[in-house]
Amino acid sequence: GEDVEQSLFLSVREGDSSVINCTYTDSSSTYLYWYKQEPGAGLQLLTYIFSNMDMKQDQRLTVLLNKKDKHLSLRIADTQTGDSAIYFCADLDTGRRALTFGSGTRLQVQP
Amino acid sequence: EAQVTQNPRYLITVTGKKLTVTCSQNMNHEYMSWYRQDPGLGLRQIYYSMNVEVTDKGDVPEGYKVSRKEKRNFPLILESPSPNQTSLYFCASSATGTENNSPLHFGNGTRLTVT
Asked: Is residue B101 less than 8 Å (CB to CB) from chain A?
C-alpha cells in the first residue's frame, strides 16, 4: 500500500529556518499536504501542493516537491516558538478522498 | 464559524460497553471521514462517507461502525470496545469532488481510553 515517511523529531533555534522532510511511495499522488497539530488540537491545514508544481511559497512557508524522487519538504523561515508542533505530511488517494499520513515530525523551537 | 464538532473530547470506558462518538459539520460538506491517531503511526482512516447513506471502509475498519443518515452528522460507533481501540480519534469533512482540491477540515479530536 501507500507509505509516507517522515523523521520523528527536529530541533531548531528561534529565528533559524526549519526544514521538515517527507518521502512518499504513491506515484499517482495528485495533491500533497502539510498539516500542523498543536497540543490538544486537531490538525490544521498549513499548505498543499499540486503534483505538477515544484515549489509553492506562502509567506514563511515554502514547499518543495521532487516528484522524481518522491520527496516533499516544508521550509519554515524565521521559525518562532509558536511554530512548535507536530507536522504531518500527507498525500491524497483521490479515489476515496483519503489522506495517507506520515507519522509526524515534532518540531521543537528553542528560544 | 465553519467547523467540525466532535463529542465527547475525552472518554474513558470499559471493555465491551457500547459507545458512540458524534461528529457534526456545518459546512454542508458531502464527504466525511474518521481517522485514528496512534504514536508513531500517524493517522489512519477508519471509515469514510461520500454522501448521505454512502459509507465505505478505510484502512482500519475492524471493530467500528458508522452511519450517515443526514449530511451534517457522521457518528462513529464501537459496539464492543476493546483496549486496542484506545486512541485519539479525528473526524474530518470536505466538499465533494476529487478533481479540485478541497482540503479536509478536522475536528479537535476525541481521546478514548478503553480499560
From this structure: yes
Q: How far is CA B22 from CA A9, B5, B12, in A?
A: 33, 8, 15
**Chain B residues with beta carbon closer than 8 angstroms to that of A98:** 33, 45, 48, 58-59
- At A30 the pLDDT is 79
Q: Does B43 touch chain A (CB under 8 A)?
A: yes
With H, G, I as helix, E, B as strand and everything else as coil, classify residue A83. helix
Interface of A with B in 7-46 (CB under 8 A): 8, 31, 33, 35, 40-45
d(CA A54, CA A68): 11
Q: CA A100 to CA A26: how far, in whole Å? A: 10
Q: What is the DSSP letter of A81?
A: G
Question: Which residues have CB under 8 Å from A59's CB, separation 6+?
Answer: none
Peptide bond into B8 cis (omega under 30): yes
pLDDT digits (tens, 9 = 90+) for A39-81: 888 888 899 898 888 999 999 999 999 999 999 999 999 999 9
Contact A42 B90 (CB under 8 A): yes
Q: Do A88 and B42 touch (CB under 8 A)?
A: yes
Q: Yes or no: say if A2 and A82 are a contact pair by the CB < 8 Å rule.
A: no
Q: What is the pLDDT of residues A88-98, one digit of tens each?
A: 999 887 766 67
In chain A, residues with a C-beta closer than 8 Å to the C-beta of B103 are: 33, 45, 48
